[in-house]
Amino acid sequence: MPDDPLAADAGRTRTGALPIAGRDLSLGRDGRMLVDRVSLAVGTPGVTALLGPNGAGKSLLLRMMAGLIAPDGGAVTWAGRSPDRARAHLVGVVFHRPVMLRRSALDNVRFALKAAGVPRSERRDRAMAALASGGLDPLASTPARVLSGGEQQRLALVRAMATGPEALLLDEATAHLDPASALAIETLVLKARDGGAAVLLVTHDLTQARRLADRVVCLHGGGLEADLAADAFFRGPPAGPARAFVEGRLVA
Ligand SMILES: Nc1ncnc2c1ncn2[C@@H]1O[C@H](COP(=O)(O)OP(=O)(O)OP(=O)(O)O)[C@@H](O)[C@H]1O
Ligand SMILES: [Mg+2]
After folding, report:
1. How far is the CA of 145 from the centre of ligand 2 (A)?
2. Measured in angstroms, how far is the CA atom of residue 227 from the centroid of ligand 1?
3. pTM value?
4. Is residue 251 part of a domain?
5. Count of domains forming the chain
6. In a domain, 17, yes or no
7. Which residue has the CA at smallest separation from atom 12 of ligand 1?
8. How many CB atoms lie under 10 A from the CB of residue 15?
9. At 89, which CATH number?
C-alpha cells in the first residue's frame, strides 16, 4: 500500500528517527478511553498542526509519539523501531511549561549538546550559535530559571533545535506568550521546517495553525476526526466535531 504514510516505516534509515509513527494508539485510565485507536505519522519536512478542544487527548498523543509514555494498545516507532534514548536528540520536545536546569541559558544548551554526544570542544560555539538564532545571545549567562516565561519558551525551543533534530513535537509552545514572543517562536519553527524538520504542533490558536501548518490533524474525545492538507481543512473541514471546533461552536 504505497499511499499509506504509515507504510513509510519500512526500509528507512536505521539511524534516523523519521517517520515518527503511531499505529492504533490507545490509552485508557480508570476505565475511560483517553486516546482511542489513533494512527498518525509525521515523516516529511513540514508542519502538522494538532487541533482539538481541551481534553481531546492531544498532549497524551504527543507524549506517546515522543516515547515519553507507553500506549496501552498499538505502538510508536521512530524510523521503524521503538523509541530509544540514543535517538532522543533527534526528536525535540517542548512543552508550554519548559523544564530548565538550574544553570545559565548557555549551559542549558551545552548540556543538551553533551547529552547528544557533541564533542566538548564544539559545544560552546554551537550553543552560542543556537542562542543567537533565537535572539537569546545577550542572555547567555543569565540563569535560565530567572528568564521570563517567553524567554524560557524560546530557550526550550533553541535547546531542542541545537542538536539538529529531525522532528520537533511542540505542545502549546506559544501559550501565554505576547504576540512578539509568539512570533519569535513561530520564526524558529519555520526555520526548523525549512531545515528539513517534521514538526508536530499542538495549538489552540487557529490563526497560528493557518500561518504555519501544511497539514491539520484534529482530535476529539480521544479519536482522530480529521487529517487533511491545511488548505483543504481551512477551506471547509469535514462535518462533525472538527468543523464545530474550527467554527468556534461548543463541542460536547
Ligand atoms: N494520568 C491521567 N489519568 C487520568 N486521566 C488523565 C491522565 N492524563 C490525562 N488524563 C485525561 O485525558 C484526557 C486527555 O488529556 P490531554 O492532556 O491529552 O488533553 P489535551 O487535548 O492536551 O487538552 P488541553 O487542550 O486542555 O491541553 C483529559 O480528559 C485528561 O483529564
Ligand atoms: Mg494539552
Report:
1. 23
2. 21
3. 0.91
4. no
5. 1
6. yes
7. 34
8. 9
9. 3.40.50.300
